[in-house]
Specification:
Elements lengths: L8 H27 L2 H4 E3 L15 H10 L13 E12 L2 E9 L9 E7 L5 E8 L9 E11 L2 E9 L5 E8 L10 E3 L17 E2 L5 E2 L5 E9 L4 E9 L6 E9 L5 E10 L15 E9 L4 E10 L4 E4 L10 E2 L6 E8 L4 E8 L5 H7 L1 E2 L1 E2 L3 E5 L7 E5 L7 E12 L3 E5 L6 E9 L13 H15 L9 E7 L7 E10 L2 E9 L13 E5 L8 E9 L2 E6 L4 E6 L11 E6 L5 E11 L5 E2 L1
Parallel strand pairs: 2-22, 5-38
Antiparallel strand pairs: 1-27, 2-3, 3-4, 4-5, 6-7, 7-8, 8-9, 10-12, 11-12, 12-13, 13-14, 15-16, 16-17, 17-18, 17-19, 20-21, 21-23, 21-24, 24-25, 26-37, 27-36, 28-33, 28-37, 29-30, 29-36, 30-31, 31-32, 33-34, 34-35
The chain binds 2,5-dideoxy-2,5-imino-D-mannitol.
Length: 604
């Protein structure tokens, strides 16, 4: 069945038929650029031209067109045909199919009436929508089927744990089993008679008791799971540990880990990672070459925080590598908009894959008008950063590369002070860009610990720099989703800041001028980038898909996801630029830009 996920079906057809012509034009344009001397393409640019003095507000005609053409629908990110979506739930691989379940409201574009939506794919890119698998129909989940996870009790026996919002408005944990294990699409699930299998006991707050993890088998041979919670009196966030011999009868063990003043931990995730290897591990794996990642989604901050540490499976406790950057006070998966994420072990390709919910930055009225809200970030492979044992790296799964087609590349460009360079990309609303800059300062870099204080500093600095504070080295980087007069543009840039301990590198994603629409969250996101001794480059991979921009800095050490809603940028008029506003010339070692294909999502 033709995809109805694009609200303007003609857009897909139009793009389908013109894509060859576009590719030819693009190639021709590429040739022209490649033969030109790089310096000839560098426009000396006066900063005054960037000023917002002449910016005109979005007109009512433009707003009307917005609703008609749905320019913010994505072309290759997962999103339902319509309505509200939030957390990814229970991802798994079964009999040749990847399954994604997700929090979904079948009745509208705002949160409510939550069921588990369902889609399957053979490559994590092309999805088939299936009917919802779990809907509220029992006293223990009648108000909503909330988040949870999948566990394989044996190879052909996947089960789902989820939080039910009961008729008494308490949060209880329930289980569903695959009703027909021979169906690779796992379309039918049965809630078990023993539900609810876990309820909050005396002294616990049944309003803060949710989101069971994937189970694992510990050293004593018992199953273990975590449930997110908080201790009310001092706001300590924690992951409650439960044990079971049969996955149905559960007993409270003790908290696996807790951190003061972090508030409610939603959607905990706990998984093993190999030291010095990219290969993923099944959730029960442990041993001398294994570290563990504990992640919590902080309800108060709406960010996903993690820590790398050791899982002592005798004592059943988690010991973070560095207490200064423990869960909730240290590292984040993503320094932009990214929440309630969940990983799974992909047995098919022996890797661990991360999914995360990316909310809108517009407002509720806009969501209702467009009829949908939220996308899932691209699936990312995760592994321990071999240059920094306290951190992980994330990278879009390799299957994304299959969507790349027309390619444009350049080498050894010199971006002088105040220069911008226009890259010849057709349809710059769907791009995958990889750029490598020379690390400009050969002086010592400060090793920044990305704790809470550093995050505040980074955000403040990125905001100042975004507002045209010029430095010695930077800001330099990319303008994406930009109009040719730059009235609308989203900037992804590096900036080197001088501190008493040497230079430190910031990566920022600046939405402050991404749209002429006024009623949009335009926060500037940013983080310090850990530069390892010997690294003499700065790299960015930026994936643009209409209203979502995913940035992976320095090989995936730092990620920033942002949303943008430009009103004068469309498939034909979007532009991509390199820029440098710093005082020193910046060398671009290489830049490669690919146009990205549309993905057709089918309904079953
Ligand atoms: N979303 C679910 C909860 C979870 C929250 C409800 C996180 O289970 O804690 O839709 O976004």
């Amino acid at each position: 069945m033709a995809n109805s996920s694009r609200f303007d079906p003609s857009r897909r057809i139009r793009w389908g038929t013109v894509s060859c012509i576009a590719a030819i034009i693009f190639l021709a344009a590429s040739v022209q650029v490649c033969v030109a001397l790089p310096s000839a393409n560098l426009l000396s640019y006066e900063l005054s031209k960037h000023s917002d003095q002449h910016v005109s507000a979005a007109t009512s005609k433009e707003r009307e067109l917005l609703q008609k053409y749905q320019p913010y629908r994505t072309a290759f990110h997962f999103q339902p045909i319509k309505n509200w979506m939030n957390d990814p739930n229970g991802p798994l691989f079964y009999k040749g199919y990847y399954h994604l379940f997700y929090q979904y409201n079948p009745y509208g574009a705002v949160w409510g009436n939550i069921v588990w939506g369902h889609a399957v794919s053979t490559d994590l890119i092309h999805w088939i929508y299936l009917p919802a698998v779990l809907i509220p129909d029992q006293w223990y989940d009648i108000k909503g089927i909330w988040s949870g996870s999948a566990t394989f009790l044996s190879k052909d026996n996947p089960v789902l744990l989820y939080t039910g919002w009961s008729n008494a408005s308490t949060q209880v944990q329930n289980m569903a089993v695959a009703a027909n294990a021979s169906d690779p699409l796992l379309r039918s699930w049965s809630k078990i008679l023993e539900n609810p299998i876990l309820v909050a006991t005396a002294g616990m707050n049944s309003s803060n008791f949710r989101d069971p993890t994937t189970g694992w088998i510990s050293l004593d041979g018992l199953w273990r799971i975590l449930i997110g919670s908080k201790i009310d009196k001092n706001g300590t966030g924690l992951a409650l540990l439960y044990k079971s011999h049969d996955f149905v009868n559960w007993e409270l063990d003790h908290p696996l880990h807790s951190v003061a003043n972090t508030g409610m931990w939603e959607c905990p995730d706990f998984y093993p990672v190999l030291i010095n290897e990219k290969k993923g591990l099944d959730t029960s794996a442990n041993g001398p070459l294994v570290k563990h990642v504990l992640k919590a989604s902080l309800d108060d901050k709406k960010h996903d925080y993690y820590a790398v540490g050791t899982y002592d499976s005798n004592a059943n406790i988690f010991i973070p590598e560095n207490k200064m950057i423990d869960v909730g006070i240290g590292l984040r998966y993503d320094y932009g908009k990214y929440y309630a994420s969940k990983t799974f072990y992909d047995d098919n390709k022996q890797r661990r894959i991360l999914w995360g919910w990316v909310n809108e930055s517009d407002n509720v009225a806009a969501d209702i008008a467009k009829g949908w809200s939220s996308v899932q970030g691209l699936p990312r492979k995760v592994w321990v950063d071999d240059s920094n044992p306290h951190g992980i790296k994330q990278w879009p799964i390799e299957e994304i590369d299959d969507l790349r087609h027309a390619k444009h590349s350049k080498k050894n460009l010199y971006l002088k002070q105040g220069s911008i360079f226009k890259l010849q990309a057709k349809r710059a609303t769907q791009l995958d860009i990889e750029v490598i800059f020379d690390l400009p300062s050969h002086e010592q870099q400060e090793l920044v610990v990305n704790n809470g204080m550093a995050q505040i500093e980074a955000q403040i600095s990125c905001t100042k720099v975004g507002a045209f504070e010029k430095g010695v080295y930077g800001p330099f980087g990319l303008y994406v989703l930009a109009t040719d007069d730059l009235q609308e543009r989203t900037s992804i840039f590096f900036y080197l800041e001088h501190s008493s301990k040497g230079w430190r590198t910031l990566v920022c994603s600046d939405q402050s001028r991404s749209t002429l629409l006024p009623d949009v969250d335009k926060t500037v996101y940013g983080s310090f980038v850990p530069i390892t001794k010997g690294e003499d480059f700065l790299s960015l991979r930026v994936i643009v898909d209409h209203s979502i921009i995913e940035t992976f800095a320095q090989g995936g050490k730092v990620c920033i996801t942002s949303r943008a809603y430009p009103i004068r940028v469309n498939d034909d008029s979007a532009h991509l630029y390199l820029f440098n506003h710093g005082n020193q010339t910046i060398q671009v070692q290489s830049i490669v830009v690919w146009e990205m294909s549309n993905v057709v999502f089918d309904s079953y």
